[in-house]
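Hi all, posting the design record for the shared folder.

TITLE: backbone redesign
STEP: 1 of 1
STRUCTURE INPUT:
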């Protein structure tokens, strides 16, 4: 396969839009674009089983999924209903926020792999092509992008959508800076279905603060439970959180996470460290390109809005690209301004949320107050 010049070579595949990354943001962008008649390829690697941990999907996702025509599929896909959030934050006692009294009803505890697969399937059914690979090279020619993949694939496209998540490398190649606000990480353990005990009675996610960060736990479809210790990357070693026995001993020191994990007698065999910091791309779009989802605005899991933001920004960026194609100059700039405003608003809410916990004068909390 050649193709080093602007015309590419015989093996170069040409599309109107190349979407890098097949998570929720990329799939939604592709879905909206193909429905409007664009030729779209999603370039995304095959995700190994177990790579995605479970997460909660806020009820505000429902109208977005409905508009995309995938709500029924998601609702029937075996995700468990999430009735609300519990939190021990600023005090030992738990307080509850229920979803049922809200306008959209329950959210879900997701099987993330299944959720992402359903969205990718919807984009493919709508006409998007999928290429299993990882975007490596991004080069701009006067009127198009030339993109290469790790396995030698070569593409040309009029527009580039960066949906690769927090790293946002294609956006950086297009000229954006990624502005990071913190270095929050999750040390996550998946507790398999317990061999004994009744089914989980509670369908809520729970956060509980500690002197060095906070815990998140939620039941997952299939009887599993996800437990995550959230702290700053530079504090992990001192806390010995990567040692499953120490991690488990710390679970046992909590008030409420301990209760939710009482049916498990052993720590998970493997812990995974996941980047979870807040960041945004500046700008989030420019001539011929847009960043969506975490690549555009990555939020703290405490806000529990990452997937909803991915769905909303994927859709908004696709509409901006369609407007730009139709000659509406300024549509991509307007999208970038909107992302900057949404991220600024999110950062204010994040400060307020962390200020509600005032019990500890420790590095983790000092950095956030
Ligand atoms: C610990 C943790 C807990 C969270 N909990 C929640 C929660 O409970 N609720 C919630 O709403 N949100 C939560 N989030 C946030 C949520 O996971 C993200 O906001 C959401 O997944 C963003 O979707 P996305 O499509 O932008 O990116 P991603 O879901 O990260 O998808 C990116 C895709 O791009 C692919 N990719 C990466 N690099 C390349 C490349 N070079 N070329 C091609 N493809 C590439 C990846 O394989 C992946 O498929 C959590 C995040 C973390 C870290």
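Okay, here is what came back for every position:
SEQUENCE:
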């Amino acid at each position: 396969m050649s193709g080093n010049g602007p015309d590419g070579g015989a093996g170069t595949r040409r599309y109107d839009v190349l979407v890098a990354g097949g998570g929720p943001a990329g799939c939604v962008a592709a879905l909206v674009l193909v429905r409007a008649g664009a030729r779209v390829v999603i370039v995304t690697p095959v995700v190994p089983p177990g790579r995605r941990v479970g997460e909660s999907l806020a009820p505000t996702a429902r109208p977005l999924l409905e508009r995309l025509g995938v709500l029924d599929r998601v609702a029937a896909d075996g995700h468990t209903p999430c009735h609300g959030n519990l939190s021990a934050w600023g005090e030992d006692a738990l307080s509850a926020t229920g979803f049922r009294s809200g306008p959209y009803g329950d959210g879900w505890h997701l099987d993330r792999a299944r959720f992402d697969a359903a969205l990718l399937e919807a984009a493919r059914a709508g006409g998007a092509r999928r290429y299993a690979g990882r975007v490596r090279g991004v080069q701009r020619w006067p009127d198009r992008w030339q993109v290469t993949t790790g396995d030698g694939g070569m593409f040309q496209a009029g527009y580039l959508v960066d949906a690769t998540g927090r790293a946002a490398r294609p956006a950086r190649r297009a000229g954006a800076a990624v502005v990071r606000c913190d270095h929050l990480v999750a040390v996550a353990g998946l507790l398999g279905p317990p061999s004994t005990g009744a089914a989980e009675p509670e369908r809520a996610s729970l956060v509980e603060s500690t002197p060095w960060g906070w815990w998140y736990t939620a039941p997952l479809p299939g009887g599993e439970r996800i437990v995550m210790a959230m702290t700053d990357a530079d504090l992990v070693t001192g806390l010995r959180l990567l040692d499953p026995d120490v991690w488990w001993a710390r679970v046992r020191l909590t008030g409420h996470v301990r209760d939710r994990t009482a049916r498990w007698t052993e720590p998970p065999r493997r812990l995974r460290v996941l980047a979870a910091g807040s960041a945004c791309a500046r700008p989030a779009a420019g001539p011929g390109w847009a960043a969506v989802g975490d690549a555009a605005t990555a939020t703290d899991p405490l806000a529990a809005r990452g997937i909803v933001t991915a769905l909303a920004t994927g859709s908004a960026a696709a509409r901006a690209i369609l407007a730009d194609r139709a000659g509406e100059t300024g549509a991509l700039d307007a999208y970038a301004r909107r992302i900057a405003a949404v991220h600024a608003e999110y950062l204010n809410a994040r400060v307020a949320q962390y200020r509600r916990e005032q019990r500890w004068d420790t590095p983790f909390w000092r950095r956030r107050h």
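COMMENT: The CA atoms of residues 24 and 310 lie 6 Å apart.
Let me know if anyone wants the other runs.
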